[in-house]
Amino acid sequence: MDSTDIKELIQSLVIAAILAFFIITFVAQSFVVDGRSMEPTLHDGERLFVNKFIYRFHPPERGDIIVFSPRGDSDKKYIKRVIGLPGDTIEIREGKTFINGEPIKEEYINEFMNGNFGSYKVPENSVFVMGDNRNHSADSRYPSIVGYVEYDSIAGKAFWVYWPINKMRVIDSYEYNINEISSVQ
To answer: How many domains does one find in the chain?
Structure first.
């Protein structure tokens, strides 16, 4: 290797490092699912990418799966599904989730949800989140652990599981149909 080759190699490494820093800081970041609170949608040990810039263009929507820091603790990251938006009233009773008094269909849940919770009124610039494995999830139902998730605490929206390779897939947000929830004005 002559000095020109070494110089080109160093330039390539510097450019790659700058691009990696830019992508991780502003575009997408890897996240490892830890625990079973999102089963059956996501499983312990799966690795996924989080879109970090999407919420610069619009706020989170119901059904989005987000990664966030609970109660502003930037050392921890949780992954949950957005259930309630600012102004919504959330109640959980008899195994069903109600938004603004209307029950919603949640086809991503495998078992009967235990307990009655709420009512919760979601504040401005915040969302109410729950794990898909409701009986094994620390989420917005528990204010001392998670509570409402402020927009500023959201790292991004999960969009693609890349590991293990045989389970690689795009993560679809569950879209609530207009007939599945009605908003009380």
So the answer is: 1
